[in-house]
Amino acid sequence: MLMASAIANAQFTIINPSSSFDSHGYIGLRPTQPSNLKLSSNRTTSTNLLRPLHLFAVRASDSHNGNQAGPLHKLGLSDAECEAAVVAGNVPEAPPVPPKPASPVGTPVVPSLPLNRRPRRNRRTPALREAFQETTISPANFVYPLFIHEGEEDTPIGAMPGCYRLGWRHGLVQEVAKARDVGVNSVVLFPKIPDALKSPTGNEAYNDNGLVPRSIRLLKDKFPDLVIYTDVALDPYSSDGHDGIVREDGVIMNDETVHQLCKQAVSQARAGADVVSPSDMMDGRVGAMRAALDAEGFHHVSIMSYTAKYASSFYGPFREALDSNPRFGDKKTYQMNPANYREALTEMREDESEGADILLVGSLICVTYLSNNLYVLQVSGEYSMIKAGGALKMIDEEKVMMESLLCLRRAGADIILTYFALQAARSLCGEKR
Known about the structure:
With 433 residues, the chain is α/β, with parallel strands linked by helices.
């Protein structure tokens, strides 16, 4: 390390680049001619290339105290002086080009493939991968499903580790507050109704003082800007466990069920719901519901239709949480066959034409070609499988959780209803569980 002398008010010009000044030891100066440089003081010259104001330079590769790289100090030169030095051939030194990494012994020597495009070039470093990432995810993309019940205590759900039936007065409010702290400001409510209030026609579904309307009013009082989605279906309120009214011969009655669903949607809107979500899969229910809401002055309330809900075994944990399994038979006459894709497109077109604002599909359907304003449900069975795999150390739960959610976004989901909402949002925010 060398320090040049500081001579106040001195001006220097280059006299003869081949003279006897030795520049080898001076850091940052590299003559292109022979390595002798002579400087002469001349107060009258107008060519002021160097001004020695405490000149001090250190190589980037030099160590300060053995191992640590020392700080680099400026030379105190103006832009014009730096440019003139370079023009004169005194180019500052930079670290050398790093050597090419060696291949392992035995690597075959082959000619390079004649490829014009090598996609791996854009995946070389974390910074490049992040720059070219096509899909992003944030807590704002999540809707948090919350199970509620009349009790005071939060009751764990055996088939869904980490999920609870929340007491509507306390546990629900606390869980919503946790979600909002990490950026999740949308929830959907699923009620566990006492058996004594269930009936074949599900009249409790539109009780203005029922569990769901009471919970909506409480949440809107505590969190006015919270976005509340609701579930519109009769199965939590039906003594038969079906999404519609069951005729004597076991047939699920369509139009009569739609009448009940419209009354349920209006009751939820009256309580303050932002989005009502028919999940029943009855024909024509979106158009009838839109008309019913508009007739009551709820033009601002959105409808999110479960447009392609399959009669799927993956809903098992969810039905355990609500105690809403069918008392007989199955749901195959009104929910879709899991083998069908074109049928989903038909359902989508019908729901859009009837006025659905948002379309919801299950996570096991390819959603890319469906529609805009698409909402995807990460079904309870998928949640439970990831949780079980993580508990058994068969997978990395955190990584698989985030990858599954990112894949739903990549497939076209604008919004994801996921039981992982709080956990995933905490992960995105860097908060430890």
